[in-house]
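Human:
Care to share another protein and its fold?

Assistant:
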Amino acid sequence: MFCKWDPNELPFDYFKRIAVITFSQLFRDPMTQINGIKVIYDFDGTGLEQLKYGTPHNLYLFYYMAFSCIPGRYKEAHILNQNTVFNFLLSIIKRFLSEKMKNRVFVHSDIRQLLNYFPKSVLPEQYGGELLDMHATNFLQTANKEQKKNTLAGQPNFF
């Protein structure tokens, strides 16, 4: 949730670095490389303090990073709790996207709509699912454990 990011506490440059590290770690998993990812962006509580960083330059930077610098299979992006300002930013972002990716961006007005795209077992409870613990700190700890198994020297063959 972007509302938890406080730009006064964590400068935007560090926020960008964390985004790069998170996506890099996410795509280290061989099964993710094969299957791709679906992302849920929840903008509940996001205000102008965070959205003021949504300049065309920064939006393009994140687009370019995600689609040109980090190899990955992006299946779907689901957007929740967007406000009027974010709808404007989304119209800017969509100008960068290919037609294929535009068709994979879904804006939901009701959280229950996520159940049409995700099984309950992989959704956190707050989105109508059954997953009890889904915090970024736990994700990074798990990702770091996986990194020890899947080093840069090579990854296990799953086939």
